Amino acid sequence: MVRLVLVGPPGAGKGTQAAVLGERLAVPHISTGDLFRANIGNSTPLGQKAKSYMDAGELVPDEVTNEMVRERLAEPDAQDGFLLDGFPRTTPQADVLGEILADNGMELTAVVQFDVPEEELVRRMLDRGRSDDTEDVIRRRLAVYHSETEPLLDYYRAKVVKIDALGSVEDITDRALDALGQ
Ligand code: B4P
């Protein structure tokens, strides 16, 4: 049973790997980006709040994000492990995750850091072509990653497992499983 957090810049392939790793490790893949996009697709109040931030390459405010994750982690399938993809993205979010885990007597197994050069990130996102993958928005998301999310690598330093996330999807999965001893 594992409780993992994936951290990496936008376009690093967190969502791609999380889908595979979740299956291989038999834990639910919980993606805040996917949860927001599902809410936007269903025009829920939460989706309406998230949309303008995502379109601008900004983070959705912590109070909205934290509550959504708190509810998702309370569901039965998350009690025996999970893989968090895209959360936490700020140190206040990491504090909230710490509280949720402590309240339930849980601990993180590891934080997997995806290492990819910036020019490759931009190339992948432009190829992906999601609505928030325009050049200006990508630049803003990268800047937000450096200022808001990168500090998590220091916050979690004892738990960080860094993997080279360049190469085929299969090779990266193998590297991640190896690094995690799975
Ligand atoms: P996310 O949905 O988390 O998206 P991402 O970081 O851009 O992408 P990811 O790293 O998952 O890359 P992917 O696998 O798709 O976030 C979107 C937005 O949601 C944020 O900007 C923010 O506004 C909001 N949000 C989410 N979480 C939040 C939070 N906690 N707090 C506040 N706001 C939050 O891969 C990228 C592309 O590369 C794909 O096309 C893929 O096919 C390709 N690819 C993958 N692996 C590859 C490989 N090995 N080689 C070549 N291409 C590869």
Report on the structure:
With 182 residues, the chain is α/β, with parallel strands linked by helices. The protein has a single domain (3-175), classed as 3-Layer(aba) Sandwich (Rossmann fold). 55% of the residues lie in helices and 13% in strands. It has 9 helices and 5 strands; from the N terminus they run βαβαααβαβαααβα. It has a 5-stranded parallel β-sheet. Helix 1 (14-25) crosses helix 9 (169-179) and helix 4 (62-73) packs parallel to helix 5. The longest helix is centred in the C-terminal third of the chain and has 15 residues, at 135-149. The chain is globular and about 40 Å long. The chain starts with a strand and ends with a helix. The mean pLDDT is 97. Residues 8, 10-16, 32-33, 36, 53-54, 57, 59-60, 65, 86-87, 89, 93, 124, 127-128, 141, 168-169, 172 line the site of BIS(adenosine)-5'-tetraphosphate.
| Estimated share of beta-strand residues | 5-15%
Q: What series of H and E elements makes up the topology?
A: EHEHHHEHEHHHEH
Overall average pLDDT: 97
Shape field: globular
Annotated CATH architecture: 3-Layer(aba) Sandwich
Q: Helices and strands: which structural class?
A: alpha/beta
Q: Which percent bin holds the helix content?
A: 55-70%
Low-confidence stretches: none
**CATH-assigned fold name:** Rossmann fold
Oligomer class? single chain
Hetero ligands:
BIS(adenosine)-5'-tetraphosphate
Count of helical segments?
9
Subunit structure: Monomer.
Subcellular location: Cytoplasm
Keywords: ATP-binding, Cytoplasm, Kinase, Nucleotide biosynthesis, Nucleotide-binding, Transferase
Protein name: Adenylate kinase
